[in-house]
Design brief:
RNA pseudouridine synthase D3, about 350 residues, alpha+beta, pseudouridine synthase activity, RNA binding, single chain, RluA_PseudoU_synthase, PsdUridine_synth_cat_dom_sf
């Protein structure tokens, strides 16, 4: 297992960890984990078809509980004391309905598998189902509480603790900036979707509208796409997807909110939230060629949103924060190579 890293002054761990100046060689998992996700033998065991155009993408419906525990155990990137950090595969839900296969549902088995049978692991922080990346677990309630207080205090002080990397379909108009939007959840045909709210009133805020904020920075561009660093300062479902959609640059593989963008004579504009339903993201022919995908394959394109970096509190209140990094999934690394985003 890798240890924690001390984040020194001026450190740029996010960009270093991605391999900014050369095509990434690491697929994002340990050797054993890669074998779990990209088997040389039976594709049934890992849930990944051998002809899968997106290497490393987990097919959850083909996995048993025991096989999912194996995948998660091999995805552990750090285990130190009561803390366990793993690199969650894209498509794995964190929570769900009773009987569904989720990260939460297999925590008892994972705890035993990691030798923590006395105290079961609990989720401290995790990206959503469609995102990949760092999941922070703890078997100690006091440690979990301390971390939650650290994250809450950091958000109030507007100090980001989570750094995502994303690939956008389109290039933001500015190289970096802040995205602020009031958001709320609305139910459309039985599905909860995030909707922006213009000029929210006090009543709106009391009824569930939340003011949200994210920082973004464009790290590289190519083929009409961008590699973007995203740092949320608030917590809301689908926040980063909606924020980039509002920038007219939806995340690559966003099959939920990208339909809210229309195009006339090459110019993008926002459509009404009520008039658009989620649908597979439509990519132009030039981008499909760059990605070596057919139109039917592009409908299965995974969301390119990865929680790459987390800051944790140091041992003492005045100590420098510690840094955890999770490498990119294999399909994400390959997309960077196809788009020429890893060579700038």
């Amino acid at each position: 297992m890798g240890g924690f890293r001390i984040l020194g002054r001026g450190t740029s761990g996010w960009w270093r960890g991605l391999g900014a100046h050369a095509p990434p060689k690491d697929s994002g998992y340990s050797t054993k984990s890669r074998n779990q996700l990209q088997p040389q033998g039976s594709s049934k065991r890992s849930g990944v078809p051998r002809d899968q155009p997106f290497p490393g993408m987990l097919q959850l419906k083909n996995l048993s509980r025991e096989e999912l525990v194996d995948v998660l155990r091999e995805a552990v990137v750090n285990q130190k004391g009561p803390l366990v950090t793993l690199n969650k595969p894209q498509g794995l839900p964190v929570t769900g309905k009773s009987g569904e296969l989720t990260l939460l549902s297999v925590l008892p088995e994972l705890s035993q598998s990691l030798g923590l049978s006395e105290q079961e692991l609990h989720i401290v922080q995790a990206p959503g189902k469609e995102a990949s990346g760092l999941v922070l677990l703890s078997s100690c309630p006091q440690t979990a509480s301390r971390l939650q207080k650290f994250f809450t205090h950091s958000r109030k002080a507007q100090r980001p603790t989570a750094t995502y990397c994303a690939i956008t379909n389109g290039i933001p108009a500015t190289a970096e900036g802040k995205i602020q939007a009031a958001l709320r959840l609305e139910c459309f045909d039985g599905v909860n979707l995030v909707v922006p709210v213009k000029s929210p009133s006090r009543k709106d805020i009391l009824e569930g509208v939340k003011r949200t904020l994210s920082h973004f920075r464009v790290m590289a561009t190519g083929s009409g796409c961008a590699l973007v660093q995203l740092q949320p300062l608030t917590v809301f479902p689908g926040q980063l997807q909606v924020h980039m959609m509002l920038q007219l640059c939806p995340l690559l593989g966003d099959h939920t909110y990208s339909a809210r963008l229309g195009t006339v004579l090459g110019q993008r504009f926002l459509l009404s939230d009520q008039s658009t339903k989620p649908q597979s993201q439509v990519l132009d022919e030039a981008l499909l060629r760059c990605l070596h995908l057919t139109p039917s394959q592009s409908s299965q394109l995974p969301l390119h949103l990865h929680l790459h970096r987390l800051l944790l509190p140091g041992p003492g209140p005045r100590d420098t924060p510690m840094e955890l990094l999770a490498p990119l999934p294999p399909y994400f690394s390959r997309t960077l190579q196809y788009l020429g985003l890893c060579q700038q």
